[in-house]
Amino acid sequence: MPKQKLTHSRMQSFKLCRKKHYWAYELGFRKTVDAKALRMGSAGHEGLDVYKKTGSLEQAIHAVEAMYAICPDQIDELDWAYEKETVEVLVAGWVWRWSEFPLTIIESEQAFSIPLLNPSSGEPSRLFELAGKIDGIIEVEGQNYILEHKFIGDDISDDSDYWRRLQIDTQITIYTYAARMLGYNPVGVLYDVIRKPSIKPSNVPILDDDGFKVVLDEAGERVLTAQGKPRQSADRSKGFVLQSRRMTVEEWSQKLQCDVELRPEWYFAKKYIARLDDDLEEMLKENWEIQATIEDAQKNGSHYKTVNLGSCSYCSYFGLCTSKFDFEKRVPDGFERLVDVNPELA
Predict the structure, then answer these.
(1) What is the pTM for the complete model shown?
(2) Model confidence over 130-148: pLDDT tens digits?
(3) Which structural domain range is residue 220 located in?
């Protein structure tokens, strides 16, 4: 019988909430439409992977376009187009920002499945193997590093807590260990972060043939100034409403490109993160204990819920936990049941 794959995502899911782990990795339930953050991250990774392999920005953009080829029925088509354009601009901006950065790609999107060893005895787990996908293995100035891309909304300034959290992040420790097992010798991790924009597509004033903004009163009549010229601002107290339309995709693209060019350090950052042998030993011990706890949960049906604001607010499975239906016998609406619970490793 094939061993189950123990990924960083699976372990994080189990540590956050056993019930979430049960829905996702025991029953294989996943949303038919990913959350926006996941979609953008997946499309961005695809674009960067194609660029690293081909050196062609055009092919990278085509890869992003392919990820957004079909707009789901429940998503507004213009919002979908905004999202696609956002990822394209960020990928193009990344290429522009780092085109002169001296690195050589050794491997890109390197999947791995390696034995999960008992750190005391060296014996492999009977149930699990350690698995994942490394964004890249690179060479910088004669030394090998793990390359880890992230599309995030966090503050990435030098003194932000984001970088402090990475000092204890288990994911890149796993990747460092896996790379060594695959025959590479990374001396650390190059974290390459793309920050998602805080600005958004905005409404644009409608202009008349003479280039004036259109302001209407409650009766729908054009509002003029005392001088007989078209009024150019709204006034809610008087019922004067500025007429506007949604920004076009091209206008949004131009707005975002300008912002990226004005403050590239806000959108893009790279930092080297060290990983010591002690970090790897701690990670291996933790992984072994987690797999044993998952095995126990599977045997005894110990799929407890973690109920608090942090674990429930943004959880895809919150509706399942609060429902009384027997979802073990049917797939809930808005979900699909995966045969392979680790599609990201394909």
Answers:
(1) 0.89
(2) 999 999 999 999 999 999 9
(3) 203-246
